[in-house]
## 1
Amino acid sequence: MGINSKPVVFAVISAAVILVGTVVTVFIPLFMPSTQPVSPYVKPYTAIELEGRDLYMREGCNNCHTQTVRPLRTEVLRYGEYSKLEEFAYDRPFLWGSRRTGPDLARIGGKYPDSWHYSHMESPQRLFQQSNMPPYAWMSKNRLDTSNSFKKTSVLGYGYSETDVKNQIDGFRSTVTSESYASKESRDQVTPAGLRSELTEMDAIIAYLQKLGRDVKNMEAAK
Ligand code: HEC
């Protein structure tokens, strides 16, 4: 009598085989350092950039924008260096996306000045008449809520102290509200007078966009 006529034994043995296969191919690699590369260039998000990232998810930007450049010639020519594993070390959850109604944003950081983003976010159609990206003008009318910023960075294990987070927020506020801020004019245009000396959701999402791909661009420049 072969094993085929003993259903219980057959089930137990096949479960064991599948279990071993799963452990070897899934769980062991999960804890191998080579599957989790780290790069000294790729830095965690600041508290503000992380707030911007949360807003990006809240607004569903990832339904229209991907954040991964595939290693294909056409993509590299259009967007820049293809995406590397280590770039996503601090992304939880990752926002690769699967639909490109709008262009990929993995290399958007540094492509335009902040002023461009203030105008574009306020009204994409003002810059590109045909754009089907919705306007996000209200984001500059909403004060940025930073009451949970420290908690968020600590849950994600970024290693900032409460003072670090406070300094990041204060530092960023003084940059964007300063008289010498390069994009002051565009920021003032979209921000109501009462909020110009404070941080808005728009400031945070733009800080986040400017971070995307910046570490890799620095890494390429240093080569
Ligand atoms: C309905 C789809 C859609 C949604 C939702 C959407 N976008 Fe867009 N986005 C587009 C399209 C289409 C373009 C190209 C035309 C343009 O620049 O307006 C674009 C362009 C952009 C660009 C310029 C890219 C470049 O390389 O020139 C940025 C930055 C951007 N979007 C950010 C965002 C952010 C941030 C959000 C969420 C707050 C968002 N988008 C939501 C469709 C969308």
Note: The pocket of heme C is lined by residues 56, 59-61, 63-65, 101-103, 105, 108, 111, 124, 128, 131-134, 136, 205, 209 (CB under 6 Å).
## 2
Amino acid sequence: MKFRFHTESRLKSCCQQAGILIPCLFIVFMLNRCTGHTTGPDDFTKWLPASIPDTVYLDPSNVYTGYKRELGRYLFYDNRLSVNNTRSCSSCHAQIFSFTDSYTRSSGAMGDLHQRNSRPLINLVYNRYLTAADSTLHFPETQMDGPLFNEHPPEMGARGHEQQIMDRFKNDSIYIALYAKAYPGEKDPVNWKNSKLAIATFIKTIISSDAPYDRYRRDSIQYPLPAPAIRGRQLFFSGKLKCYQCHGGNDFSTPLQTVQQRQPDFYFNTGLYNIDGKGGYPSYDRGLIDLTRKKEDEGKYRVPVLRNLLFTAPYYHDGSALTLEEVILGYEQGGRIVKNGPFAGDGRINPFKSPLVSGFSLTDTERRDLISFLYSLSDSVLINNKNYANPYR
Ligand code: HEC
Ligand code: HEC
């Protein structure tokens, strides 16, 4: 990039001297287009969906600049951020899968299995709680300490190797330039604090708002939804199915009662397991109870976003549903029945299950309609958006 800046300004002055400014400016313009990089602080407010004004970007503890985002994008895609050069954030959060990894559960730098299914890093700034069952995590800036430094299991395995990892970037001319632009005036800008702020800046800009359903809502004449999706939408918002009661708001992740009663209850038990008949979930992951130690929190998980489901299978906190049919069948039955294996049990009679998951019946056509609606929330513009792509490709 440094090289490019120099080339650009040299070209400009050379052109001016030669008095052939216009054709030369065209060359500079083409150079810019070909490299496809963001060169300077850009106006991020232009990307925000107009319907959701937000002040998060004005966060004084991590002020947004285009240079910071660009550094964050490089780091997000760089395997050198993990102890053994095998994992980057993008290993488990790949753009093509709406920033998930398509595995049931992710595996870390040492090959250990993570307890959870990877989550789509989209619209993070609009979601009040991060991860499936930790009500203390609200900001990417702090959540990131998990994947970077966790030891049980290690994800990127950076703990104990902090200096060694930063040295890789201190000795790389591309990064020296990126850090200097992102943190101008700092004597030693290549450090963990700055790296984390930059990655957070990048992932906070990953906004998904161009699904067929978004377009339809913006202009239903120009972007009509197919009839099955319209019918599915009616089902989703019906008193019979009650999906909208938990999956509300812009990302279908804000429970309705929260809005009405202003109570922060984002966590529900949907009856996925009932191993011992007393509401037991698999011992390696029991939901909110692992944090609060309250019995009634066993099996409670955050209501997830329902955007981009077309790209994010398998589903649930542990990836235990391979298809949307399976998910919907669970809701139809009023809880999931696990027939075989160590986790067998009847989720329908889980004592901690939300009363909103009470069961209903659907015809095959209705089930397909509901799935059509859910798929209409999938934004293929996002997965092709160059602003979020791997800068090394
Ligand atoms: C080994 C795989 C793996 C790596 C590497 C990884 N993540 Fe994750 N990430 C996950 C999993 C699994 C979850 C879901 C965790 C949970 O629900 O408890 C997750 C969740 C998240 C979330 C919360 C999303 C939400 O909607 O709640 C954020 C933010 C995040 N990761 C950012 C990052 C960043 C930034 C990096 C790089 C520094 C990174 N991750 C590296 C697997 C990974
Ligand atoms: C009581 C609140 C509640 C209701 C009602 C509800 N859900 Fe959910 N939904 C959740 C929670 C909580 C999860 C996460 C469960 C987990 O991962 O263990 C979830 C997960 C999902 C998922 C998986 C998403 C993913 O990325 O893993 C889909 C799809 C889904 N729900 C669709 C629906 C549909 C369709 C309806 C209506 C038939 C519905 N939900 C009704 C709370 C609810």
Note: The radius of gyration is 24 Å.
## 3
Amino acid sequence: MKMNFKHMKILLGTLAMLMSFNAAAGDAVAGKEKAQLCLTCHGEGNTVQGVGTPIISGQYKDYLIHAMKSYRSGARNNAIMVGFSVNLSDRDIEDIAEFYSAMDSQLFTPIE
Ligand code: HEC
């Protein structure tokens, strides 16, 4: 088949569709629902929930995904967080990361 202008337009349209689909990966609204339990410890924005609990609002999305997957696999071992991550699907992780990374905060972990 010879590639003509019409084919090119279809190809570009398909590519644009795939790219926008990819950009939409992670749904903050669904993420908020899935994060109800997480919010009790990690709070929202700069809320401090206790010593040793990191603020994750405003954290980079890819960092959050990496951290959750590391707990889930056991590569990052923390008794609390492994327990809260084992049942999360990749989709859950994407959505929760989207929700938290979209929030404003100054990241810190209270240590005293
Ligand atoms: C009972 C309190 C509690 C709950 C509930 C909880 N966490 Fe955590 N989370 C912690 C603590 C404590 C740490 C620090 C663990 C460590 O030192 O590795 C942590 C660490 C994290 C980190 C790593 C932060 C960093 O800066 O590296 C992420 C991401 C995270 N939690 C996400 C979640 C998500 C998502 C949920 C809900 C599915 C959740 N947490 C539920 C207490 C909690």
Note: The radius of gyration is 19 Å.
